[in-house]
Amino acid sequence: MCLSCCFDFSHKKVWDLGGQAKYRSEWARYTKGSDVIVFVVDTQAPNELPIAKKELHQLLEDRDLAQLPLLILANKIDLGPKFTEAELIKGLNLDYITTQTWMVLAVSAKHGTHIDKALEFLTKQSKG
Questions:
Q1: 114: phi > 0 → left, psi -120 to 50 → alpha, else beta; which?
Q2: Residue 12 lies in a domain
Q3: Which of 27, 39, 74, 87 has the smallest C-beta neighbourhood within 10 Å, fewest atoms?
Q4: What range does the domain containing 75 cover?
Q5: What pTM was estimated for this model as a whole?
Q6: What b-and-e string marks burial along 23-51, b requiring 16 or more CB atoms within 10 Å of the CB?
């Protein structure tokens, strides 16, 4: 799904790409020409963290994407996360990402918790 939105007097195009296995092959097609990567992790599914790590690092193998700012959204904090931010950083191997700016942000999409901070990061890091 493609959304166009206006935030802070700038126009952004946002692609919402599903994380299910059947959609992952399409990620590279939609991320070309992006300014920022937003990667959403379900804090209620710690058993999915190894898959998320694999998919994230596979995405970052693309030389163009490996230079883009990365925003990791730890979603569903309203349900009581099943892992900490430190465990997420370790689980996704974010410590080893040194060629780009990255940030982890705990959010609740359902309640809008910290979505303003995510938009601030996107606005600050995007080129246009």
A1: left
A2: no
A3: 87
A4: 35-125
A5: 0.84
A6: eeeebeeebeebebbbbbbbbeeeeebee
